[in-house]
Amino acid sequence: MLSPNDTAVTDSPVVADSAVIDDSAVIDDITAHAEAMSRREEELLAKLVGELGAEVVGELTEGGSPARLLKVTLPDGSPHVIKLLVDLPGAVDGHDLGSFRLKIRQIDKVRDENPDLRYFYTDKTHEFHGEDWAAYTMPFYPNEDVAACLRADEPQVELFYDRLGAALRLLVTHGYRKDRVAGGRGTIADVHADRLDRRFWLLAKYLPEAMTGPDRIVVNGRSCRHPQQLARLIMARPELTAGIDPTWLYYPVHGDLNTRNILVTPPGAGLRDTEEGFRIIDPRGTLDLWDISYDVAKVLFSLSVWDGGLRKGFEITQPPDAAGSTFDLRFRGQPYPGYVTAAHRFLGFLTEHPEFAQLSREDPGWRDRLLLGHAFHLLAEAACRLSDIKKRTDEQSESEISPLELAAGHYLYGVLFLEDAVAQLEATGHIDPQTHLGLLPAAS
Ligand SMILES: Nc1ncnc2c1ncn2[C@@H]1O[C@H](COP(=O)(O)OP(=O)(O)O)[C@@H](O)[C@H]1O
Ligand SMILES: [Mg+2]
């Protein structure tokens, strides 16, 4: 399966001449499952559309979960979105029905308890619950995602940071800051390391054995330890992360702050007619007090690998003369230059952000925890891609990007970033941002 000389026969864009992943068998399996799921979703969506007396406008496909989203028009003429999740046996936590139902509770809680956020936080107009599914509706907000201005031909990094800064100010002032509890030693081990350990079976099931089996693999020239072993090391040696565990956990205003969940709305759609506004959508589904560094690490993760990777796909090759577990990894095509610039400026932006800095002042480990969390987010996302059987579209060719390619790309970047983060923690107790972010996909 992994011989570098194989020329795989498949029409999937994953496999080029020197490619590593022959995913045809796995894709058949996933596709069969996807078709059955999709029929059930269609039936339920049709039922919900009927109950609401709505007209279907189209599907929204920018999401990061297996949920289905339909744009509809309600009988009063207002554009709405129906979001449906049908339970997927074996879905990773965060993508399961329990988390989805909690998401609805979290939206209610945040809106009820923080009236000032109502103009900026997603509304929820209806909810529906079945035995193995749930759905909710919300108004449709005309928008572009907060990172769209970085993908423009002339990337607008200042505008991105103005917008992100304004959204973060609202979230801190009317959200995170509303409540806090002392964070405990072992938070990183519980939240990140344990989750990776629990999800690893899914990665081992679908990804090539040469990626998930050996004690060490080489990624972009760097020898990396097995990520599950690193997760267990963090759990077994709490002193490694004791200095960077969160001092405080804050009000759970979000939990999945990727750039596609921060919508920039045009003037008139928010609080004021003359200024653009925001809608923060799609919270994680948690009612527990939460680490703000976890959330902002999701923004870095969107800029570094996730958003560009989902839009472009990954090119994974094995050098012809190298050993079986040596991988070279990059985006297909070039990373968005605006994302690369913005990712390198991200920690500086947070350091200077007045409201964020007010919270992080008492939290000396926030930078290290953010960078370590970023590495874990990449690995967690690899499992989500396998759990997410929704079809995704390559923006250039309109052809599908295989979930396996997306999973493998996130996995290998995650292995690389986690190795570096843990090695630096072992050596100095800190992670130097400059050398660490030097691992980012770069334009070649
Ligand atoms: N209320 C809405 N108005 C406009 N666009 C929306 C709305 N809800 C979702 N979207 C679009 O659909 C995408 C996926 O929705 P989201 O709720 O984030 O799903 P997922 O859980 O799959 O990430 C969003 O990133 C956004 O582009
Ligand atoms: Mg989302």
Description:
This protein has 444 residues and is of the alpha+beta class. It contains 14 helices and 14 strands. It has a domain at 24-33 and 142-437: Alpha-Beta Complex (Aminoglycoside 3'-phosphotransferase, Chain: A, domain 2), CATH 3.90.1200.10. The protein has a 5-stranded antiparallel sheet, with helices on both faces. The protein has a 4-stranded mixed sheet with strand order 9-8-14-13. The protein has a 3-stranded antiparallel sheet with strand order 6-11-12, covered by helices on one side. The two termini are 28 Å apart. Bound molecules: adenosine-5'-diphosphate and magnesium ion (MG). Residues 60, 62-65, 67, 69, 81, 83, 138, 140-141, 143, 260-261, 281-282 line the site of adenosine-5'-diphosphate.
Which structural class should the secondary elements be placed in? alpha+beta
Number of helices: 14
CATH topology of the domain at 24-33 and 142-437: Aminoglycoside 3'-phosphotransferase, Chain: A, domain 2
Supply the CATH superfamily name of the domain at 24-33 and 142-437: Aminoglycoside phosphotransferase (APH), C-terminal lobe
Main-sheet strand order equals 1-2-3-5-4
Give the overall silhouette: globular
Helix content: 40-55%
In CATH, the architecture of the domain at 24-33 and 142-437 is Alpha-Beta Complex
* Residue-averaged pLDDT: 89
N-to-C order of helices and strands: HEEEHEEEHHEHHEEHHEEEHEEHHHHH
Say which molecules are bound, naming each kind only once: adenosine-5'-diphosphate, magnesium ion
Strand residue percentage: 5-15%
What is the rounded Rg?
21 Å
What would you call the quaternary organization? single chain
- Reading off the top of the CATH hierarchy, the class of the domain at 24-33 and 142-437 is best stated as Alpha Beta
Major β-sheet profile: 5 strands, antiparallel
InterPro entries: Kinase-like_dom_sf (IPR011009)
Protein name: Aminoglycoside phosphotransferase domain-containing protein
